[in-house]
DNA sequence: TAAAACTGTGTATCACTTACACAAAACAGT
DNA sequence: ACTGTTTTGTGTAAGTGATACACAGTTTTA
């Protein structure tokens, strides 16, 4: 099995991602499958987070010994990579007006946001390559289609996809981290938000942080009762700006020629 | 010392962030300082990454025992939070035209990008609260100023800051992950990029991924020789779109009234 | 009917975090 | 000055986790 410090590890990973780890015909029939292992690991990570994910626990969950997993996976890192692609699943098909690329991208963003809230640990997974698995690329494809239709070409379409991806990932990350931190502190959402507001009021010096102080004074950081402290709305705002920016870019290029 | 599963942990953290862990007057004079510990930990994380960061190694680096660190810090998690704020430092002062909010934000983005490349591990640090340290907030403030001047108010200014922050963080994350993965595989940049292109060509099915296939055919994924595989340029593209979007939003609001 | 290849397992090693208790050090109040 | 209290740095030990390695049993191939 290829060491992690080896170019072969990348090829091996691709093989597993795309061909699901076909086994040679010799030897005993495997009792487990890669898919089964990845599924058990995903369930565990969903329920208790990436920190609670250990080879031991996955193995126990499946009723096998820890070391048996190493017959399917070169190590924990590789397992996480496989989990990440599997958990991504396929993006939901877009059913709206095919000409409305903005709506299609908004739906994409929304679906991805939900995916990350469903599998928060994927945001912390350390991947060794750019997206290369079938599901990761399916999401990529689903964004490229409307962007291409909007009029973006080549590298611009990639850049725009990455920009939207960046926004969703980070905003989801903000939301997830806040929820996790809140839960670890044993606070309600309201308590947590009020505590943050109070902390800002206590420590933020108006001379050093004038703009921030003004916002605090406006009550911007007070508890809102919104889910995820309103991060979803921040994301909506951001996506709207980004799509506006893309639209005006395409228009300018069209009018002015390349 | 407050357990992590305790609201007091948050107050304790704030105390350390803002008042640097003042010590009671009784007892032996401490030989270490919080700052010293954080600095050693930052150097280690810079050099070898967050995985290599252990209490043992930090202590050894300083010439003390592992457990001595626990007199200054409640645990590794808290240390990482302190490191993150300290490593953020203060944003460089903006020296350009004060009326040119776009240039100011571009400079901010650029400085932040460099910060993340200098301290890549901060992108993986798990923080228990929204930004609450003096340096984190200083960066926040530095973005709020030009955005406020641009004409954004209240929650909009926050949303826009988060959007730009999201872009920089994630693009830096892409760059960092690619570099790390490349290094672990023992490949040159060129080899790594060529390998990715080759993998896409091998596995991507034109029927299932038509838009992606078109891009691959255009040679978009071929090695470029650009630093960080051109991610910096993708970020520039993205920031340009975002600023355009913000600008048109402000203009529309001004013309139409709130 | 071997020989070869592969599976699941038991064992062992190494690194890590952190709880706990102890002795020495420094201060506070008398 | 003195004594009790608080705090520091340390030694020890427990618990968890990743993973290397060798072994015995299983299945296929020649």
Question: What does this entry show, briefly?
Answer:
Chain A is an all-alpha fold and about 260 residues long. Chain A is built from ten helices and no strands. Chain A is about 65% helix and about 0% strand.
Question: Topology of this structure?
Answer:
The structure is a homodimer.
Chain A: H1 7-19, H2 34-48, H3 55-62, H4 76-88, H5 101-118, H6 134-150, H7 154-185, H8 189-203, H9 210-218, H10 231-256
Helix pairs in contact in A: 2-3, 2-4, 4-6, 5-6, 5-7, 6-7, 7-10
Chain A binds a DNA duplex (30 and 30 nucleotides) through loops.
Describe this structure in words.
The structure is a homodimer of 258-residue chains. With 258 residues, chain A is mostly helical. The first copy, chain A, has 2 domains: 7-21 and 29-88, Homeodomain-like (Arc Repressor Mutant, subunit A, Orthogonal Bundle); 100-188 and 225-256, Tetracycline Repressor, domain 2, CATH 1.10.357. Chain A has helices at residues 7-19, 34-48, 55-62, 76-88, 101-118, 134-150, 154-185, 189-203, 210-218, 231-256. The longest helix of chain A has 32 residues, at 154-185. Chain A is flat and about 70 Å long. The first copy, chain A, starts with 6 loop residues before the first helix and ends with a helix. The mean pLDDT of chain A is 95. The interface between A and B is large, with 79 and 79 residues. Chain A binds a DNA duplex (30 and 30 nucleotides) through loops.
